[in-house]
Amino acid sequence: xxxxxxxxxxxWLDWLKALLIAFGLAFIVRMFFFAPIVVDGPSMLxxxxxxxxxxVNKFAYHLHEPERFDVVVFHASSKxxxxxxxxxxxxxxxxxxxxxxxxxxxxxxEPFLTDQKDSLKSYQILTNDFSLEDLPGGYDVIxxxxxxxxxxxxxxxxxxxxxxxxxxxxxxxxxxxxYWPFNRMQTIGK
Length: 190
Hints:
This protein has 2 domains: 32 residues; 155 residues, Umud Fragment, subunit A (Ribbon).
């Protein structure tokens, strides 16, 4: 009888160890590598919808810097994270004139806005004209370790036009996988 009790006790200890290790690994992965986030609001329409659930890759920018048109999550304040698209990189000048994005004076194609631009009437505006100098901070080029971000729904987005450029220290990570709702499951490209 004593041997059987000891075996049961060892079995429970083994299960407890396995569970603790699993929870520890899950905690480490969530803390340092991947985390879920829920899109809140219309600022990234039509790419992202309010309520879309996504995975944030927290590790991506430990390997490389953010790239143009990455969709990133960043700390907009101590209580709120935003999801926006990287438009301008350090050392660049950004402006929009007549719905056209210019980086260092060169016209840039924004493929994620093609459908929106195609549906505009000639008198409609997708993105109000602005220049980097007009934004908070008044920079003539984006400072080192900062990016300029915009929402895809340019008429309804609190982004760098209001917040100014975003420090790369504020960036939580890159996101490109919608996992819920099931009918919207997809990876979003540039």
